[in-house]
Amino acid sequence: MSRELCKNAMKPLPASSSTKEWTESFSGHKLPWEIVGNLFTIFGLSVMTVADWDPLFACDKDRDECNKRQSGENSRECAEACLALCNDVDSVNDFVIALMSAAYALQSFYEGDTNLSDDEIMAEGEELETIKSKLDSNGGSTSGKMYPSTVCRAWMFMSLIRDEILEISLGPPLGAHETQMRRKELKRRCEERYAQMPHELRWQPDDNERHRSMSALQFSLQMALYQEYNLNKFPIDRLPDEGAFNVKQDLVDTARKMLDGILVLCANRDKLTNYAIGSIVYHGIPSAAILSVELLKHSKFPQDLRVSLPRSEIIQNLSIFVGALEWVRPSEGNYTLCIRMRKVIKRILDQVLDMPPPNSCHSENNAFHDPAPPDLAISSILGPQDEPDFLEWLNLVDWTRGMLPDAWT
């Protein structure tokens, strides 16, 4: 079979007049090494989209451990062996070029972030080895420069984790223990991936000097990736325990970070107007919905200490966010949603600020000191004029899947 594959690889692909004729020229008994190599890369790349706990990686107890990385590495080695055979017989065609590109993609997956320029990617021999020796432990460049490959890879890893989150949130309900384990593992990997990104792509909230010196492009990329990182943690923290959704401290903390990011955009709106408007809806509304409801619960039930809320900070940030919602123009697709959200947050803030401070209330005279029931409905603490159904929807909607247009009106 090997001899037949080598003979086929030496033959140039004929010109074809139809799809059937074209596929028959490299399949069946005409199969060449470059097609075999491409099949290995397809498998190796597909493995990256499969969850670590998938039965695909389960092995018999008498066999060596089988996991995602090992499967990908095996595919990469096989693909590179096929490419070497193509080079030995001087085979050059579109499939060989595709194999070279896919083999490089596999290498970047399993050896780290090849944060390199196009010229460096195409280097060979000693030059390539010299370039590789300058990469950091995660495979990233230490030059401090950003390339298209850097940004694409960062978004890819964000998407892979988002895909696993959706698999769990849309799948059958899990037991409390399994949910907790999945949540812990996903959050660990989410934080690990973000920490491994090149320094030029990671947002540092307290580095004000660096923020002022950034270009608009770097600023927008950092903020976009930072908010997507938080948006990945948001549904992880919302994973229900045995089918029931309860707000947890981690969810409140993530919502605070997302809203803080919106305020940074507000202060730098001149740098990225279009992205700021989109982020207000995509990142701002889900975080503001969680914080608004929890702020109101804490104000009406001050003895309920299940989550810690910095009252003053949240009131100030929500007030600024209300102003930011006014930036959305009537021509924007989410205008109606933003107007309703602005109206609801203002009413909640009015109620909260009209209440006496918690420390001025006495338990013997104030029924609000009773803890809030764990399944407290939003409609029980809001009047009909405050659109409780709208907030109930905001509290339950799956923000990883986009918003439902019929719920905006």
Give keywords:
about 400 residues; mainly alpha; disordered C terminus
Summarize this structure briefly:
The chain has 409 residues and is mostly helical. Helix content is 59%, strand content 0%.
SS class:
mainly alpha
Flag low-confidence runs: 360-370, 399-409
Average of the residue pLDDT scores: 77
Fraction of residues in helix: 55-70%
Radius of gyration: 27 Å
Number of helices: 16
Classify the beta-strand content into a percent band. under 5%
Kindly describe this structure.
- 59% of the residues lie in helices and 0% in strands.
- The protein is an all-alpha fold.
- Residues 360-370 and 399-409 have low confidence and may be disordered.
Describe the secondary structure blueprint for this structure.
Blueprint: H1 2-10, H2 19-24, H3 33-47, H4 68-88, H5 94-111, H6 118-121, H7 125-133, H8 148-169, H9 176-195, H10 208-213, H11 216-237, H12 249-267, H13 273-300, H14 311-325, H15 335-354, H16 388-396
Helix pairs in contact: 3-4, 3-5, 4-5, 8-9, 8-11, 9-11, 11-12, 11-13, 12-13, 12-14, 13-14, 13-15, 14-15
